[in-house]
Write a structure and sequence with these properties.
This protein has about 500 residues and is an alpha/beta fold. The chain is built from 16 helices and 23 strands. It binds nicotinamide-adenine-dinucleotide (NAD). Its EC number is 1.2.1.27.
Amino acid sequence: MSTIGHFINGEHVADNNQPKPVTNPATGQVIHDVAMATVETVETAINNAYDAFPAWRDTTPLNRARVMFKFKTLIERDADKIVALITEEHGKVKSDAAGELTRGLEIVEFATGIPHLQKGEHSSQVGRGIDSWSEMQPLGVVAGITPFNFPAMVPMWMFPIAIASGNTFVLKPSEKNPSVALKLAELLKEAGLPDGVFNVVNGDKVAVDTLLTHQKIEAVSFVGSTPIAEYIYATASAHGKRVQALGGAKNHMVIMPDADVDSAANALMGAAYGSAGERCMAISVAVCVGDEAAEELKAKLLPKIEAMTVGNGVNDPDMGPLVSADHYAKVRSYVDLGVEEGADLVVDGRDLSIEGYEDGFFLGACLFDNVTDEMRIYKEEIFGPVLCIVRVPDFETACRLINDHEYGNGTTIFTRNGDAARKFTHYIQVGMVGVNVPIPVPMAFHSFGGWKRSLFGPLHMHGKDGVRFYTKMKTITQRWPSDMPSVAEFSMPTLK
Ligand code: NAD
């Protein structure tokens, strides 16, 4: 069995330190191991990125953008291979993996516009004979630490913009699916990226802690669960780094009495059960305003759940397995808990077994009704194919429920009432909001990020915020000798 190593300074680096198994979730079989980087290995990656920075910073923005253009064509060329890697190590179905790759590719496309995005501002004659401008300079070596659930897209939220704006990068992907990051590193090299600009270290807490505390790291982008996001934010900030740390979620869909319930039910199927619910923007709570809306929704959902296909992602069914045996056990235990807590388990996916894949981590779709805000299955992120229906008497209670929740990543409302939709988008305490759409994931040229305990730090991912995060502003004020003052001035300059 092979052990996956790292990618440092333009080369694959073999390593056999404390290998951890990587499993195909559909078969339950270990397919290879992945090495856990030591402090020294991570330091080697950081030092190479540090050495590569001056030349890359001084490469013209157009030439940096050209690497991104080439990278885009290489991703398109090898899309099938990348999709196969995602499905093999993550479990998500082929078409969903292709969707993830496309959303990542869109950030690469956005980053090709870096000569425009990184332009500063200029004011002439701010004082007599004085001009002033600001420019956005890269930070230096920046790090990305990413979760298992989007092995291509989430790293691509980060490094295309970071690199295009002149930084060098060290990525620490999830140890559950390390192969995609290495493939992307190979393609970046083929696209002409100089060695050392993009590095991948595989590993665990040892690698992460080295990145968070190392003097040569200027900024840390993190996506993962809230407890780790909070730790990353606190630790890296305490070590003087710029940090954006995106955490967990519990996303609600409000179904108003006037909603098009057919559309809401279709939207919920994909949003709740797509990718086996392992999406930070998955909808895990359907908030029905009134019992009638709840009954109607349930009646529409039941046959759709019954008709869902579940299996190995390579065959492109509706839903694949969960990522690991541990995660399967955790999600399943939440279903047990929901029953103990008194919610009505309307659809029980616990007994699912897929012929030929008896060792895979398959959990069927689960649906709870009459869930209340006291229950842990409501409060906590389950991150599996478990949808909870909560019944509320009115719109105000629906909004209060969402605003009181500790997470504020995404939410959406299904309604025909423009007034309710407007109030919802304006007042709801959530970072990404939809109206009559299932998962309001912003496009590459907007920014992605939640509120409350779904994001630590002021700047969201990609879009303008992404460029701001990976650049620091310098403001220059300039005068030439013909306009120099002839006498010394001791008062605060006011540029009259
Ligand atoms: P995770 O927090 O377990 O791991 C994320 C990364 O942190 C991995 O690279 C992992 O190796 C590292 N890590 C784990 N434990 C660590 C520790 N103790 N110290 C230092 N580093 C550590 O998350 P996951 O299970 O891989 O991903 C699922 C979570 O990510 C869910 O909570 C999901 O909501 C969240 N997520 C959020 C977003 C978002 O945009 N807000 C997007 C995707 C996923």
